[in-house]
Write a structure and sequence with these properties.
One of its GO terms (biological process) is L-lysine catabolic process to acetyl-CoA via L-pipecolate. Its cofactor is FAD. GO terms for molecular function: flavin adenine dinucleotide binding; L-pipecolate oxidase activity; sarcosine oxidase activity. Pfam families: DAO. Its EC number is 1.5.3.1, 1.5.3.7. The protein folds into two domains: 11-52 and 156-217, FAD/NAD(P)-binding domain, CATH 3.50.50.60; 91-149 and 226-277, D-Amino Acid Oxidase, Chain A, domain 2. The chain contains six helices and 16 strands. The two termini are 33 Å apart. Helix 1 runs parallel beside helix 5 and helix 2 (66-86) packs across helix 5 (155-168). The strands form three sheets. Strands 6-7-5-14-15-16-13 form a seven-stranded mixed sheet. Strands 9-2-1-12-11-10 form a six-stranded mixed sheet, covered by helices on one side. The protein has a three-stranded antiparallel sheet with strand order 3-8-4. The chain is of the alpha+beta class and 281 residues long.
Length: 281
Amino acid sequence: MATAGEPHSSFYNTIVVGAGIQGSFTAYHLAKRGRETLLLEQFPLPHSRGSSHGQSRIIRHAYPQEHYARMMAESYRLWEQLEAEAGVPLYRQTGLLVLGANTNPEFQHCCRTLAQHDVPGELFTTESLHERFPGIWPYCGEVGVSDRTAGVLSADRALRAVQDGVRRCGGALRDGEKVTDIKPGVVVTVTTSGGVYQAKSLVITAGPWANKLLAPLGLQLPLQTLRINVCYWKEKVPGAYGVSANFPCFLALRTPHHIYGLPSNEYPGLVKVRRGSTEGD
């Protein structure tokens, strides 16, 4: 559903299907560059049916993969830019503690990428870990490295800020419109439950729904939909694991699952924890 007064057209330079964080940022930067852009979302916004909802996400330089670590300087700059444009706080620096065995290749890669990109941090032995973070009990033999630049992004607020930015830059956002047909060509025609639109180019950022859109075109991507369970653990000592107590985000590089955690903030007295695959986190 378009906002009252939002520009309405049937022809655009680019149509973006899927208004999660990837699609919203794509539409935002296209509109910012002066391209007539339409962002389509099948569900009424905001919603919790994709992977972009929720109050918080970790942002960090500490990645085992060099290509991710290399992207982060620009990523931080773009988030800072959006924060200034939106006039709302989106990022809170908390630091991140990465735990792992000294022999763990991913832990070694994290240490290497932090050093290569001059990210301020500190190495911890098993003993100094417990002294510095008495609330964290590492596995036997685990050591740690900190990424002081890491922190928490306010996910829902950030998504809304990007979508507001699309409109502010002259783009259109129409939610509650499910795409029912795509006809490729020199001009792409997209039919939705609410109208018919045309564009010179089409970007699909539909997450787990991507293959449903691509199937009629004879295309399929090797995508696997994963359900991520997020848990909230109650603090035994109120406030001990909160952002006000300078408790960091944490990442335990363990097999077969990584463990991610965020300090108590979005729900007072509750620490956010989730388990992730060792591949593609």
